[in-house]
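Practice problem. Given the sequence and the SMILES for zinc ion, write out the predicted structure.
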Amino acid sequence: MGVLRLARRVPKAWVAAGLFLAWRLLRRDRRQRVPFTGRKHVVLVPEAVERALGETTFARLLASKRRVPESDPRARRVAALGAAIVRAAAAGDGAGGYVDHLRDAAWRFVVLDDPAVNACALPGGKVCVNAGLIDRFAGDDAALAFVVAHEVGHVVARHSAEQLTMQAATQLVATVAQGVALAAGGPAPTKQGAQGVETLLEMGLFRPRSREQEYEADAIGVELVRAAGLGDGSASIAVFQCFDALADAAGAAGAMTKQLSFLSTHPSPAERAHAVRERLSLGGGRAVAAAAGALRGGRGGAHAPQRAPAAAPPPQARSKAEQMKVEAMGGY
Ligand SMILES: [Zn+2]
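Answer key:
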């Protein structure tokens, strides 16, 4: 039986499902506090499911990509930085945030034999750093530490599980709305109409949330490198300058990404550098709530992005296709 026919027959069940979900979402005790930033979010994905998703994706990733051996100095360097950062995260206990998902995390830090300057994180504690990024920061442990800490920040803040929760919730609510419209005698939704709704949800909900998560991972990354004794967080600016230069070197596609950053899943490097500078000027530490507000404001408005100073040209630029592929898997 098709979904539309089912909706015609049992619209009350769909409405009840939607109301139940809304109740679950709105219950205050379902909201979790993100460690270090204090932002509250709703995550309905159980920790065990989150970990399993991370493990499965990690296994697929390793099966499809070549890995630098663990004995390689680059892999040992990333593993050492990662261990120090994870220790700092555990010792800080999330500055009062929700950390239950970290208790059974099986952290792995691997280096992929990929020349693209990028890194990614998977739920449950899997962090991948490309060899191209390590080569770019060959003599700058503080910058590389910030990259690793940013990725750890995504895991600490349960960003993947939050996105999954949002996607499931919006799909269910949209289906309920269709069921209600049909029950009221409205026209059956067209394929074009459904695609339009999906596009609006993507542009209005998921991309802004994705950008907010990048700012948040930056904020947590700064806190973690400080707590781990790996710098004061200012090395992050060099990282953003590198990515800014990469966007420049990418040519017209990169320029468009910078001008229309609100269409991207990631804020521009200049916007991120600006937000981190604001955070550093706050002095860090427990000024997290104020910093979180500043970071959210950093998306625009009063916090207009400032262009980061020019950096040394990158060794290579990613193609647009490469960039989109990496963003899809939660790249740096
Ligand atoms: Zn990120």
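Check your answer against the key. Residues 40-164+199-328 form one domain.
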